[in-house]
Amino acid sequence: MGTTAVRIYISVDIEGVAGVQHPRQGRLGEAAHEAARLLMVGEANAAVRGAFTGGATEVTVADSHGPMSNIPPDRLDPRARLVQGTPRPGSMTEGLTEDFDGLVLIGWHAAAGARGVLAHTISGRAFAEVRVNGLLAGEPTLFGGHAAELGVPLLAVSGDDCLCEEVTAQFPRARRIVVKHALGAAAADSLAPAAACALIEEDVAEAVRKAGCRAPEAPCSPPLDLRVTLTQQAYADAAALLPGTERIGSRCIRFGAETHEEAIRVLTAFALMAAGLD
User: Fold this and answer.
1) Which residues carry a binding-site annotation?
2) Which one of 7, 65, 225, 273 is separated from 265 by 20 to 30 angstroms, measured CA to CA?
3) Residue 248 lies in a domain
4) Where is the active site (predicted)?
5) In percent, how much of the chain has pLDDT > 90?
6) Residue 12 falls inside a structural domain
7) Which of the residues 33, 120, 146, 260 is marked catalytic?
8) What is the tens place of the pLDDT at every residue in 94-130?
9) Packing angle between helix 260-277 and helix 139-150, nearest 10 degrees?
10) Which residues are annotated as a binding site for Zn(2+)?
11) How many domains, in total, are found in the chain?
């Protein structure tokens, strides 16, 4: 008798990783980033180990921070596939399909406009706040919502306590893994990396064991009404050029989307436009 395939998708960011609390740690080329990306791949590997211990037969890891080329490929657990590079159509969940059995988010952070270590949504440069159907939206709101539309449940999330409070409210059945407590925008009380990795490995294993019992959930249902506050008026000037957008303030843009994937693509376009104006 053949073994039933269990496919797990792990998206890894850097701001929610234990030991990361300063913007320099997320900037490619900075000396601080070299150390931070090793912490990032350490937590990625802990999640991969946990997924396989919990019964996964296939694991995909998506490098999902900034340029999305942070994880040293030769440091990643060789059992996992690695998605890297940007821009890419699916952004932080590129390649996620209905064939996966669960989504795990490692090293993620709180939403733009909320309290938390290095809190932002998609782009700290571009967005001061993103609301979906009136709800303050972070990256789990968007990408967990996209997964739910595919029929894939959000199984577990790791990051600071502020992120985990957001996830508790929006995805109450997802496992929350607190690896640090926010003391400010660039300050944290963190577990040691080894302790954080041990916790992630244990909790991801347990989440994957229960994946078959989990139904997808999402805080927002289509059609989606997005109201986006940009950080600069010039960014809103550019965003307003896109068809389907409505200017509702000096820095505010409104648009509609039929799916979370569509919303993510428009927001990604806004972020790329903002980057091009600097």
Assistant:
1) 13, 15, 65, 109, 139
2) 7
3) no
4) 120
5) 97
6) yes
7) 120
8) 999 999 999 999 999 999 999 999 999 999 999 999 9
9) 140
10) 13, 15, 65, 109, 139
11) 1
